[in-house]
């Protein structure tokens, strides 16, 4: 397995339409959606979003949950990314601040309860972002 993904429009192997490197990217789950294939024909699509950078992403649709899960595992392994939902089960919202939300979560492997703070870096100015990084460094020491 490599770190590049090739996209083909018509199912053939030659030539590929697009190519992206998975390095530094991450895989994001999306809710299933009903899709219209042809006039009067519908199916359930199981999407998986591959985020390559802030401005570049692709959504792949699968015909089953099993296929999506299989691809998700392969793509995460190739990209070296991990998903917080693989490690924690989010249970309740504890609070909300100017830049983020704090959730109660349970660590899946050991069952310990934790608080997880999420933040939107895009909403932060340089000073706040620097403060947040220092806060994270301090919390890592605990």
Verbal overview:
The protein is of the alpha+beta class. The chain folds into 2 domains: 4-82, no CATH class; 85-141, Phosphorylase Kinase, domain 1, CATH 3.30.200. Helices cover 22% and strands 44% of the residues. The chain has 2 helices and 9 strands; from the N terminus they run ββββββαβββα. Strands 3, 4, 5 and 6 form a 4-stranded antiparallel sheet that branches. It has a 3-stranded antiparallel sheet with strand order 7-8-9, with no helix packed on it. A hairpin with a 2-residue loop joins strand 4 (33-38) and strand 5. The protein starts with a strand and ends with a helix.
Percent of residues in beta strands: 35-45%
What composes the largest sheet? 4 strands, antiparallel
Mean pLDDT: 81
Low-confidence stretches are none
Structural class: alpha+beta
Compute the number of strand runs. 9
- Integer-rounded radius of gyration: 19 Å
Helix tally equals 2
Shape: globular
Give the termini separation. Answer: 37 Å
The figure for the number of domains is 2
Helix content: 10-25%
Report the order of strands and helices.
EEEEEEHEEEH
Defining key terms:
142 residues; alpha+beta; Phosphorylase Kinase, domain 1; 2 domains; four-stranded antiparallel β-sheet; three-stranded antiparallel β-sheet
Give the helix/strand layout:
Layout: E1 4-7, E2 18-21, E3 26-29, E4 33-38, E5 41-53, E6 56-62, H1 65-79, E7 88-96, E8 100-107, E9 113-119, H2 126-141
Antiparallel strand pairs: 1-2, 3-5, 4-5, 5-6, 7-8, 8-9
């Amino acid at each position: 397995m490599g770190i590049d993904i090739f996209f083909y429009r018509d199912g053939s192997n030659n030539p590929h339409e697009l190519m992206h490197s998975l390095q530094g990217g991450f895989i994001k789950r999306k809710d299933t959606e009903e899709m219209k294939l042809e006039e009067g024909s519908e199916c359930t699509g199981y999407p998986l979003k591959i985020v390559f950078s802030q401005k570049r992403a692709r959504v792949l649709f699968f015909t089953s949950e099993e296929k999506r899960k299989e691809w998700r595992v392969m793509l995460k392994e190739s990209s070296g990314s991990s998903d917080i939902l693989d490690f924690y089960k989010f249970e309740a919202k504890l609070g909300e601040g100017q830049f983020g939300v704090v959730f109660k979560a349970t660590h899946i492997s050991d069952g310990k309860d934790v608080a997880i703070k999420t933040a939107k870096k895009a909403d932060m100015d340089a000073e706040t972002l620097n403060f947040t990084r220092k806060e994270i460094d301090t919390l890592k020491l605990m």
